[in-house]
User: Fold this.
Amino acid sequence: MPSPPNSSAIANSLIGVLLADPQLAALMPDGVYYDVARAGAKRFVIVSFVDGVDIATYDGRAIESALYLVKAVALASTGGNVEAAAERIDALLEDQFWTIAPGLELMTCFRSGNVLRTTEPDSTNPELYWNHRGGRYRLDVALTPYRTLGRLTGNEQNGRVTP
Amino acid sequence: MIKTGRYGTVSWDPTGTPPVPPATAPLIISLNKWKASFKTDKLDVTCFGDVNRVYIPGMKDVSGTVAGFWNSAEIALFEAADAEAPGFLALAPNSTEPDFNWSGSAYMDADIDCSVDGAPTVSGTFMAAGPWTFAHTP
Assistant:
């Protein structure tokens, strides 16, 4: 039975868009990471999955709607400008379109919630502080039909298993 | 057997020609809901002396709705709404049991709902344009 496209491509493409931008790289030179940055990184972007919902039609999964937290994180003592980085993230994502993967077409990307600047102390050195700034971005992705709905005759079941 | 509605189908042949079997008519894609009603009018024949109202059945009505998402690759629903002649509609609860379906000649209306916070949805209303049949194996 045909399978839907690999959903991991959605987050990978999001990270790819952020990684490919030289302006963002100049602001946050230590990279873009999923969930956890590498040890020693001091100015970076974090992408985290918040929630997601799949919407079905009779043809199968039709829409994947996923919410990601995308934020710039910087150790305050480095002078990293998280506001500027967040503004650049917004320019790269809000109402922008990019190629995800065959079978996955980005319908829209928009910020559904602002994440205002927050500051937290370093977990090991209370004299150091981390600044965070970004937003929650929703990606609605349409799946092109991945299983062909042919005409049904007799016991032919279109390759589907009986649930 | 109870089965999931996930594999329901809505088939529509704009020519109005009943295929054999009915569920082999072309499928409308990107739909995720259908509902049919087979209510029969009840005529009030209450008479003097009856201790409660009494009814007898009149004519059965066949109508319903379909719904799903707008898909630019599939405009059959809106073509059906523009058609002057009725088409052939077949509704199956689960494609793994294609021998269970309701079908018949029908007129179709269509609606589209485009909201800023989601994918545009479509819906259609159908009503019988001829006799309908309920195909079932048992």
Q: What stands out?
A: Chain B has one domain: 5-135.
